[in-house]
């Protein structure tokens, strides 16, 4: 359109050009038209490029989420996305308050972020999915079964605007039990420690492990551990029961047992 306008301008003034240019008023008109025609283009060319905005919604707090969010920021920086120059971040933390998930997801959509990273469980991912059907959503820590939760169509083809990472810890529970049986052929009784507050742990202990244990002819006994203080009581009971093996379900229990003295030595 700019080229067309220029040609029309030159064609229009080609006739009697000399007499018109010799008239001072035509210099003024020419200057005005030139300014509006080419000045606007120059101004548009000088406009800064739009910086992509990444929305980050977490179920935790800035402190608890700092390790993961910083890792993502550094990884993007290595790819050339420097904060303030090539990318901008919008962080929102619900600090464990599930009722704020929808509010914060909607707020990020209202800010017109270009992509959303959801660092939380199924509830937060669903809130983001309900808030937008167009903004790409990357799920982090979606639990054991995002397909069963209706977040994605399948692991191979998530579908819609949701993709990302999930952990299949519970689904691999049976394989871990098989490996334990291979390592200890005489394995007959296994104590399973788990945190019942996490649904993924419940599914693993109540649904995934029993069928595999039955096939391996191994008896499992589940022990609930809700806090670090519960270990002393559980270990005291296991010290009397003397199982052949110990299975720890869930990342939190694994972390808590890492430095805990095992009394069945």
Structure notes:
- This protein is of the alpha/beta class.
- The chain folds into three domains: 2-45; 53-164, Response regulator (Rossmann fold), CATH 3.40.50.2300; 173-258, Rossmann fold (3-Layer(aba) Sandwich).
- The chain contains ten helices and eight strands.
- The protein has a five-stranded parallel β-sheet, covered by helices on one side.
- Helix 4 links the parallel strand 1 and strand 2 (88-93).
- The radius of gyration is 31 Å and the shape is elongated.
Number of strands: 8
Class based on secondary structure composition and strand pairing: alpha/beta
Domain count: 3
Radius of gyration: 31 Å
Number of helices: 10
CATH class of the largest domain: Alpha Beta
How is the largest sheet built, in terms of strand order?
2-1-3-4-5
Could you describe the largest sheet, including whether it forms a barrel?
5 strands, parallel
What proportion of the residues is helical, as a percent range?
A: 40-55%
CATH architecture name of the largest domain: 3-Layer(aba) Sandwich
What is the fold-level CATH name, i.e. the topology of the largest domain?
Rossmann fold
Q: Which spans have pLDDT < 50 for at least 5 consecutive residues?
A: 1-38, 252-265
**What share of residues are in beta strands?**
15-25%
**Gross morphology:** elongated
Q: What is the residue-averaged pLDDT? A: 77
Order of helices and strands: HHHEHEHEHEEHEHEHEH
